Each structure stands twice: as structure tokens, then as C-alpha cells.
Amino acid sequence: MRIAVACDHGGFVQKDAVVEHLRSLGHEVFDLGTNSEESVDYPDYADRAARMVSRGEADRAVLLCGTGIGISMTADKVPGVRATPVQTVKFAELARQHNNANVIGLSGRFVSLEDNLKLVDTFLTTEFEGGRHAARVEKIMREDDPAFQGVDA
Ligand code: RB5
What we know:
Number of helices: 6
Shape: globular
Radius of gyration: 15 Å
Structural class: alpha/beta
Bound molecules: D-ribose
């Protein structure tokens, strides 16, 4: 799989290990930084990775910030992206099975590297279930369409 990885200073402590883990599994990894603990703005890093997914240049993205929240919130605004923070294996699994998430946000400050690698593995190996979830995911994606005026319009 082609995987974009990006982080801010809050995720940097784990980023290189995540990149190394993904490469050891044979994935093609685009390491988009940041590359130090110097303070940066997570939306800039989320944007670069999410746009690679949006353009079809990466299949998935794994993002890290302090909580995984801000970097996911930013990525999710990019068309074609379904991003969510995940803190448990069950949520990583459901984000794939029910929501067809293509981007996850990890916490570099509140979740251990060992646990985050389990979340990454689950994210990459769990299939979207489709079926009743497919129509709902299509409804998520209509929010990307500027012509969509809302369900009650
Ligand atoms: C940076 O201090 C922190 O706000 C950021 O890493 C992230 O947790 C935001 O959601």
C-alpha cells in the first residue's frame, strides 16, 4: 500500500518508528515530516498527507499529533478523505468496517508506540464491510459536494 505519514511536534516522538514499521511490512511510505520537536502547525502537515490521499497518490494516511484530534479534523475536510482519531483497536477496526476510513490520527502523547502500532496494523488489515454501510458512507461523501445543500434543503 502507498501510505502518507505526517505529524506535528506532538507526534514526532513516534513518527519515525511508525514509518519504519510500515516500511518493514513492505508498504511504500511517504514521510511528510515534521522532523523535529520544534513547534509546527498540525494543519499544514495534515493537509499535505490528506491531499495525497485525495489526489490518489497515496491509498491511506497515518497522522500523528499530540492527541490525534486536530490533525484528523483537518484531514477530514479535504475532499475524498474520511479521517478519524483512533485510540483503541476496536475503534480502528470499526473505522474501517463501517466508515471506510482512509486516514487515521494517532496520539503521540497519550497512547504508547506499542499500542499505536496495533492501531496502525488494524487500520491497514481491516476491510470495509460495505452492505448497509456503503450507502451511509456515500452520504458522508456528499458533504464534499458544494452543490449539496443539506438533507433538509
Ligand atoms: C500541539 O500542542 C497540539 O495541540 C497538537 O499536537 C494536537 O494535539 C492538536 O489536536
